[in-house]
Amino acid sequence: MLTTLPRKTAVAAAALGLALTAAPMASAAGKAAAPAPITVNLTVKGSNGVVFSGDIKTTGHNVTTASGGTHKCDSTNNKANPTPGATPTAALDDAAKVKGFTWDATWYAQYDDFFVNRIAKDTGNDSYYWNIAVNGKSTEVGGCQYQLKAGDKVAFTWTAL
């Protein structure tokens, strides 16, 4: 009996060690990694010309506006995509931080998305709004729902209704 006790202890210790080693791996496997930033080409064109034009590194992230508050903007909004990624609105937010221009948007909970109502000095009204296009085509979903791919051409354009 004395010779089996150390063996049982060694087996139990080995099993416990394996369990403790596997536990962090299991929890890490169940948790999705944050998406890697991508580079897109962003153009923001207002009533007085170009506000921003160039490449911007971006990923989906929380966005804060004065009118809308803080909300996620990672393309999973309104269940548009199963995994998070970069969005036009997050790219606009990143460009504003880099270039130093301001923008604002209203949050609409029913759409789980922002509606951009001002960039620089141009504020939406009954005659104009900020159109969002990707690769030359207006988006059919909000700017926090559309998932960008590396190299996409994103445009926010001051547009007549």
TrEMBL record:
Record keyword Membrane present: no
Q: Which Gene3D superfamilies match?
A: 2.170.130.30
Q: What is this protein called?
A: Transcobalamin-like C-terminal domain-containing protein
The chain positions of domain Transcobalamin-like C-terminal read 108-159
Q: Which residues form the signal peptide?
A: 1-28
Q: Does the keyword Methyltransferase apply?
A: no
One Pfam match: DUF4430
Keyword terms, alphabetized:
Signal
